[in-house]
Amino acid sequence: MSMKRKVAILGATGAVGQRYIQLLQEHPWFEISVLAASERSAGKKFKDACNWVMETDLPREIAEMQVANVDVASVEKAGDVDLVFSSLPGDLAGPVEAEFAAIYPVFSKASAHRMEKDVPLIIPEINPDHVELIKIQQRLRGWKGFISTDPNCSTIQMAITLKPLMQFDLRQVMVSTMQALSGAGYPGVPSLDIIDNVVPFISGEEDKMETEALKILGTYEGGAIRYADFKVSASCNRVNVKDGHLESIFVKLDQEPPLEQIEAAFEDFRGAPQLLKLPSAPAQPIIVRREKNRPQPRYDRDLGNGMSVVVGRIRTDSIMTFKYMCLGHNTVRGAAGGGILSAELYVVNGLA
Amino acid sequence: MSMKRKVAILGATGAVGQRYIQLLQEHPWFEISVLAASERSAGKKFKDACNWVMETDLPREIAEMQVANVDVASVEKAGDVDLVFSSLPGDLAGPVEAEFAAIYPVFSKASAHRMEKDVPLIIPEINPDHVELIKIQQRLRGWKGFISTDPNCSTIQMAITLKPLMQFDLRQVMVSTMQALSGAGYPGVPSLDIIDNVVPFISGEEDKMETEALKILGTYEGGAIRYADFKVSASCNRVNVKDGHLESIFVKLDQEPPLEQIEAAFEDFRGAPQLLKLPSAPAQPIIVRREKNRPQPRYDRDLGNGMSVVVGRIRTDSIMTFKYMCLGHNTVRGAAGGGILSAELYVVNGLA
Amino acid sequence: MSMKRKVAILGATGAVGQRYIQLLQEHPWFEISVLAASERSAGKKFKDACNWVMETDLPREIAEMQVANVDVASVEKAGDVDLVFSSLPGDLAGPVEAEFAAIYPVFSKASAHRMEKDVPLIIPEINPDHVELIKIQQRLRGWKGFISTDPNCSTIQMAITLKPLMQFDLRQVMVSTMQALSGAGYPGVPSLDIIDNVVPFISGEEDKMETEALKILGTYEGGAIRYADFKVSASCNRVNVKDGHLESIFVKLDQEPPLEQIEAAFEDFRGAPQLLKLPSAPAQPIIVRREKNRPQPRYDRDLGNGMSVVVGRIRTDSIMTFKYMCLGHNTVRGAAGGGILSAELYVVNGLA
Amino acid sequence: MSMKRKVAILGATGAVGQRYIQLLQEHPWFEISVLAASERSAGKKFKDACNWVMETDLPREIAEMQVANVDVASVEKAGDVDLVFSSLPGDLAGPVEAEFAAIYPVFSKASAHRMEKDVPLIIPEINPDHVELIKIQQRLRGWKGFISTDPNCSTIQMAITLKPLMQFDLRQVMVSTMQALSGAGYPGVPSLDIIDNVVPFISGEEDKMETEALKILGTYEGGAIRYADFKVSASCNRVNVKDGHLESIFVKLDQEPPLEQIEAAFEDFRGAPQLLKLPSAPAQPIIVRREKNRPQPRYDRDLGNGMSVVVGRIRTDSIMTFKYMCLGHNTVRGAAGGGILSAELYVVNGLA
Question: Does the active-site annotation cover B245?
């Protein structure tokens, strides 16, 4: 008999849902018990409900599973559940996740609940203490379970690199992104929109980068998050790359540490996942590449099994303090991998 | 008998050289008289020396012309010359352009002489009075001809949009570029480097954007250029787009005009080429797109026959004053088209 | 007062519908009177109903037109109609086109009616006499109008090149295609499906190429089409190209003419549109490129304003008789341009 | 002390050379001893001589190795050598490989010697007995070593699928390829040539496919290869895909087995590498995909660690007997992986 926690994936047929399935194969603590999706897919075999877009083959036993509808009754009927990963689309996520959270721990990749006061927005390397919020959440909402959210993909990788810069009194962050196609899900970006082109707009993305980072890097004080007090300004673009968001970041610090010290701060940064040796934790959250033309999405997105953020081209800046490039795998660290790491953090804390 | 000025193109077989050839077909004032290139091509028919990468067909009479070597004697032997367009590679451009400038007006797209004190760096809409520098140049160097230079392609489009912002007391410019493949010439970027990828480095490009803009937007005073006093910080990237550089620009102004006033300043901007009705001048140097997801390279690069710069997504900024996207056709406005427009300006001034 | 024929476009918001709009700007005989689309779009301004994907700007007066629903009553209420272009999706096309054909000449790009016995499948250069079928169609169906259909895009360009080969007793045609993204409409192919990839399957396409060609190149005899008696075998692939289908064609002839004679047959081929000087007719239906590496989609798709088919690499074959490459612009010659040319043929025949 | 065979790689800095390096990491029988390249690279550290284009990182100890010049004296000076892998460019390969073959077993990916009478052209699954030719070669040429060659990449994958079809009396093969960028090496295809494009020409490729296959599938009789007696006609195209050649293949057999029998013949095919359990042998040389739209390069090229050939869309053909799609990883099975597998075959035969 398996002692692994039984996992239900809500939104299992989508691109992020598929990545959850892929990453949970062989996971030491979790096993997939239920795949749920919207009415259109419910009742079908997973292989018929889903256009599998992972490069690895669809696992055979997953292919044959019947998709449950995304409501508690249907999911419970389909199998045992200990915890829930949700990658539902925004509009659906709000009420459905709340329904599940009344009973189960829900780890959500959706934006619906991220900015609510009693909902933690977790990057385990940065703010593991924010998990405390769920006690307040449970009390306020009368839930047995809870909702813990993961940030937007382009925010996650930026925030991870900002954490070690906080010690130098971070004040301002300007970022221009070049984001991968998989960030828009599947079918997502039409090929006619992106061939020989860049699309300088991603709905809601700039606002997310400008606000979520402040909550993530804020401090848990007296049962609430006090937002960090630096400012972020973002300009977001979609480019013709499959996976891996690349970001040009310009940073203003109150201190002016030499570049070597900044490099060291990036490379030496470790967080709770590394200390706790969580199964999905990369050995190094931030990898520094020293080649003059790196990081590059195709070459660097899989470092640390897609869980490391890769920086490079660290150089002084005549207006701000310094600038650098930052790359992360948007559907691993920026989505399913990040969600699993969060769940692992809750497990070791005895909360899930 | 044609009364058009006879033109020699140095570096005619390269990607920019080819664009010169394409744009000079049917030009009312100029006609191609000599095509020159390095030793490897000299002596061959143009069609055999060149891998023609323009989408329009190689004109028949150009195909059959014999390529001259890039020295004055060979060029003069090949045909009459009134003025010279140079798109030579950087290392070759320095001495060769000087040799020609002793006799002829040379309009150079190379970076070799751009930052020299007595060499004008011209964008006709911005600094038509800088052409006065050539009198000093001729006196100092004892030349009958002169060298006038065009800025780097990513700088040109940015600088055109900065000009109308000068009235609001421009202080700081942060720019992250997404530059097209054709900016690297031919063969240029290997396809294996750019498929499913972005390259966050272009040799020398950031430095050019940070310094050239100050000279271009500087003032001609007492026989010299006084550099503009704002600061530029650039981060340059190569993306998988054929033509059209796209730039995320963040701007700090001392004034805080409403966005409508900035939009109007962009749209109403006109310069010498428009007033003088130069043949290659676009009706509007800056076009503002109001759709939420424009400008885009594939859709907007050919506006104004590739000579207009296109801006969009003008919005306020929490750190600087406002931010916007800027697109220009890098081998038309940013190279051959810009060079021809410069030459037209000199012609109406009686200098070429 | 305009004497042009008033045109309604059914399926106007789709990629082919947009191409119709683009190509009908400035047409000497036709003017757009009504834009119709399915319920989802009906009632909206065209600019709000449509994601415009043409590189030329959406014409202003088109942008403001209100979209009618695709039924006769709604269309007639929206404006006067002399003839109808339909680019409706397959399932919708069947009944809707029939409703309109009871009253109006309908030129259909849909596959619904193509293979019906009394429906002409027209390529004006090949089978202008097939228009005679509409008299039988009108009699059988009791219609005042009629349906005339255009072939599948990949079939059109192949068939045009096969026509001049008929004289050498064509027996077998094997073709492997590399088809452009725009052939799948908009949004069409998801970018995640095609980046760094080829998709070796296009639903229904091989069957269309194998059967339609025989009807097109058949003969009109005694009120019916006798199919041509050669065989076609097709293998269809989608590649990462915006416009322009490229085809590897292997041909078996009973005769063995020298390659020069085949080249001449291609180049000298002219049909009714050229003789009648129809407004959309290219001067040369087939252009032969002699460079060793042409035709190429990006360089050759716009030849003859996208209405010429371009062949190259004509060479002998050890198994069949000879082989060649064939390129056509799939949304111009292969769709809207072909449809307009058909309508022009009917007009000069006094049938529309 | 390592008992592995010491390997020298000629042409180590090229794209195929790099793939050799990548695949030989952790190889149980071979270890890299010398990296050699042309004069331009000789004497430099490998990391400085080479633009590493593999997605896995350049191994540290390889990075620091000094590149030897590609002559026997320089290579021997650089390290011990038991056998040689050559991925030299064609012109250089001829004399250099001969120089090494006088002393060492040389496994060549170059085309220079492939079609010579006494030189085996090996695909271990197909013609392991052809290795016997080297005894004749050594006798004729007075060599202690020998040259064994690997076929052209697009030929290898096709030939592997043809082998199990021989039993049905194969007569004719028509193939149209869609070949990956990495097949042209590095820098290889300029990005400006392939963006939004297909190039329907690869120098020498069609001829190689049409002739090499006959030698590979020929029989070793009386000290010579008797060529197979079917015919091949090829049409070769370059598409915008990083790795993985895709081929549309039409086949004429004298027998007409049902498709199920053909599928079974593909799937059940095993050769010497499988029987001998060679380290680089895939479990299954040919994998059959049954989805209607597979194989696809991005999804299927890495099956069997890039050593399996993947077929799909097996269907009857109205002109030939049947048609199918065939995919192979062109730099693994089609180059370095194939070369290593050949060497492994010689080792177990006691020949290297």
Answer: yes
Out of D196, D298, D299, closest to residue A196 by CB: D196
pLDDT at C2 over 70: no
A329 is catalytic: no
Taking the CA of residue C57 and the nearest CA in chain A, the distance in Å comes to: 15
Q: Out of D113, D130, D245, D329, which one is annotated catalytic?
A: D245
Judge whether residue D1 has pLDDT over 50: no
In this structure, the answer to whether residues D26 and D114 fall within a common structural domain is yes
Report the CATH number at residue B29: 3.40.50.720
The pLDDT tens digits of the residues spanning D269-318 come to 999 999 999 999 999 999 999 999 999 999 999 999 999 999 999 999 99
Q: Are residues A87 and A197 in the same domain?
A: no
- Rounded Cα gap, residues D238 and C198, in angstroms: 11
Residue D313 and residue C237 in contact, taking contact as beta carbons nearer than 8 Å: no
Mean pLDDT of chain B: 96
Domain that holds residue C323: 153-329
D195 contact residues in C (CB cutoff 8 A): 298
Q: Are residues D215 and D317 in the same domain?
A: yes
Q: How far from the centroid of its chain's Cα atoms is residue A273's Cα? A: 14
Beta-bridge partners for C147:
C106
Condensed to tens digits (0 to 9), the pLDDT of residues C269-322 reads 999 999 999 999 999 999 999 999 999 999 999 999 999 999 999 999 999 999
Q: Please, which pLDDT band fits residue D90 given cuts at 50, 70 and 90?
A: confident
* ipTM score over 0.85, yes or no: yes
pLDDT of residue C90: 79
Asked whether residue D186 falls in the same domain as residue D84, the answer is no
Q: Does the distance separating the beta carbons of A193 and C188 come in below 8 Å?
A: no
Which one-letter DSSP state was computed for residue A45?
B
**Helix or strand or coil: residue C150?**
coil
Q: How many domains does chain C have?
A: 2
Q: How far is D57 from chain A (nearest CA, A)?
A: 8
Which tens digits make up the pLDDT trace of B291-315? 999 999 999 999 999 999 999 999 9
The beta strands (E) that lie in chain B are given as 5-10, 30-37, 68-69, 83-86, 105-108, 146-149, 170-179, 219-221, 224-226, 231-238, 245-253, 286-289, 309-316, 322-328
pLDDT single digits (tens) B236-259: 999 999 999 999 999 999 999 999
- C246 and C98 within one domain: no
On whether both B300 and B167 belong to a single domain, the answer is yes
- Catalytic residue, from C50, C113, C130, C153: name it: C153
For residue B181, what pLDDT is reported? 98
pLDDT tens-digit map of A2-36: 589 999 999 999 999 999 999 999 999 999 999 99
Element (DSSP H or E) covering residue D274: helix D272-275
Please answer yes or no on whether A191 and C189 come within 8 Å at the CB atom.
yes
Contact B192 D196 (CB under 8 A): no
CB contact (8 A) between residue B233 and residue A318: yes
- Looking at the predicted structure, is the pLDDT value of residue B2 above 80? no
Residue C300 distance to chain A (closest CA, Å): 17
CATH number of the domain enclosing C264 = 3.30.360.10
User: Which residues in chain B have their CB less than 8 angstroms from residue D193's CB?
Assistant: 53, 187, 191
Pairing of strands B219-221, B224-226: antiparallel
* Dihedral sign, Cα of residue C297, residue C298, residue C302, residue C306: positive
Q: At what angle do helices D205-216 and D153-162 cross, to 10 degrees?
A: 40
**DSSP H/E element including D233:** strand D231-238
Is C55–B196 a contact, with Cβ atoms under 8 angstroms apart? no
Is the domain of C171 the same as that of C264? yes
Per residue in B21-76, pLDDT (tens digit) is: 999 999 999 999 999 999 999 999 999 999 999 989 999 999 999 999 999 999 99
Name residue, tokens 């805080």.
B256
Residues B185 and B209 in one domain: yes
